[in-house]
Write a structure and sequence with these properties.
This protein has 204 residues and is mostly helical. It has 11 helices and no strands. Helix 9 runs antiparallel to helix 10 (168-184). The radius of gyration is 17 Å and the shape is globular. The relative contact order is 0.14.
Length: 204
């Protein structure tokens, strides 16, 4: 019961629609322009670099806050948590990713979950987070396609945990995160196969 309350809190944290709020502050609803996504890539296309950076930071922070809350609860012994520490942290991160992807403030619509996943990984497994970000950046430099870079980086996530920070529980959490990211990128995968996916910096 206690864990369920904290998972709900993590979901609400993840639900805060950073890109949507930044767009609204500029009089633009990101859901109705460009790709229709509220993430930093669409914010870059529609609102510019500054708004994209703020969106990226905000979305990363949501994942980090959720996992950080789990770590604080366990460290300070505020309440009794029956889940294994790794599982509790992992589920809190996943709850924030799901909140971002299915925001309660946007009628359960949201973003792709890449930045929020990276934010959760930053505290859940810093070395894996750095490795994943490096793969994304390298892929983005070569392909200039944000979605493809995310699919590559997060497709390798379970293997990254196996190599850099192995435990069965962490590989399980990584697999769940990969699944969520891929589900949210279904339309991007279809466009990639059709050769219709836009490159970074290209106007929608």
């Amino acid at each position: 019961m206690v864990e369920a309350v904290f998972l709900l809190i993590a979901f609400v944290i993840g639900s805060i629609p950073t890109g949507f709020l930044i767009g609204k502050a500029k009089g633009i609803d990101l859901r109705t322009v460009g790709s229709g996504n509220i993430g930093s890539t669409n914010a870059m296309r529609v609102l510019g670099k500054e708004a994209a950076l703020l969106t990226l930071i905000g979305d990363i922070a949501k994942g980090s806050m959720a996992v950080g809350l789990a770590q604080a609860v366990m460290r300070w012994g505020l309440v009794e948590i029956t889940l294994e520490p790794v599982l509790f942290q992992g589920f809190m991160g996943i709850a924030s990713i799901m909140g971002h992807s299915f925001s309660i403030f946007l009628r359960f619509r949201g973003g792709k979950g890449v930045a929020t996943s990276l934010g959760a990984l930053l505290l859940f497994s810093p070395y894996v987070a750095l490795f994943t970000a490096t793969i994304w950046l390298t892929s983005a430099r070569w392909t200039r396609i944000s979605s493809l870079s995310a699919l590559i980086a997060f497709g390798l996530l379970p293997g990254s945990f196996y190599l850099l920070d192995y435990s069965p529980e962490k590989v399980l959490m990584a697999t769940a995160i990969t699944f969520l990211v891929y589900i949210r990128h279904t339309s991007n995968i279809l466009r990639l196969f059709k050769g219709e996916e836009k490159r970074m910096g290209e106007k929608s």
